[in-house]
Amino acid sequence: MEEDLDEKVKSCAALLISDDLGEFAKGYNELETAFEQPGSEGRERSARLAQELAAFQGGAVLERIFAGAPGCYRYADADKAHNHYGGCCLVSALLTSSKVVVERCLGMIEEGEERRCAQEIYETMSRDALQRARELKRGDDTMAGLFFVVAPLQCLANIARASRVFRDGMQDVLKDHTLFEQLGFFLSAEFLKKLCDSNAYAVRLALSSLAMTLAFSSDTQLWALDKGLLRILASIYEQSPLGQLQDISKRDEFPASRCNLILLRLLESDPATEKLRAHNALSGFRPHRDKISGASPDFDIWGYIEANLMGFSATLEDLSTGQTWTAKSALSGSSVPVVCSWKLCTAGPEPLAGKKFAKCSACKVARYCSKEHQRIHWANHKKHCQAGPVKLPGDQPSQEDEKGKVEQAGNVSGVLEDGVPYGPTLFNGCFGRTWPFED
Fold it and tell me: Which of the four pLDDT bands, split at 50, 70 and 90, describes residue 137?
């Protein structure tokens, strides 16, 4: 099993850093297939693949994918560069479902600059996706919407779920703007009618996932309510076809169902409930009560929301502890777990609460449930951990960089550490500095 996964990592990495677009496409297909594996074992396996790709050759894969895909600049043909960038968006939408990958990306700059990087990632990706959404024409190639709108929105939702630093960066960027001002166009009838049904659904799903993260996270809940979260939810309800809610097998995955869970979660908090009343949520959501009820037909959701917002004492008798658990699990339902990096480990995912797995002190990527598993994994990990910092094209290593690389190569112990990341940076600057195709 370990050998098979190691070969998969090598194969996938080689394809993803290739300048050949055909090879790159094969790499994406391999990655997508791996992430579609069913069951808990499949999720753990895809998690290990993502973690190993994050560590591969000191971050070579992530540098290519997330640091603006510098390989694009090697293409004299604009169409090839365009397609490569689109492919990078798709790959990043998969890889950012791993918290380990997200942390690695935010740590790819100078220590202490993660928040600045988060600001630039959010600002660049949201701006670029919005520009492309406005330029999209009805009947355009389905892949254009998937590449340049759906995938970036999925990335933003994934990264926000995984990182408080990123959410802090979002708040910085939106200091003088609202969420709806930045994201509302993606939920407009004007835009969604340009997309095929699957892409329109994916847009609503990505934004409902982002909204759920903001509503469920204590650091953003009240801020999001003041920044237009309710208008985002109302737009998702408005653009969700009522007939679609009849598919019982997919009901828990519906964007409208997620919006219901968000409202229920907000009503659990007195400060959030007061915010809902202050923003006149009852009047805002009343036109959508049929969809609210249709998305959760087993409960009198609308009656519960209406009573609470009118100040009456109300309980949702059928809402059990299991339903609350479903709400929490939906928040991370599309993410892969953090796992021990040794492929034969049977400890399962890192606990959501309690003691976390330790990190390799050098690369900060590899995770271990025990020192013994770290020792076993070191034989394979050391060649990537010792690869040294990845450089952007044109960067020249300094004497300090070379010295640090030698010192790192000598650290064969890979000491476990649970502290703040430190060590050599992968490159100077943030993703926004090199993100391609900014018009």
Answer: confident
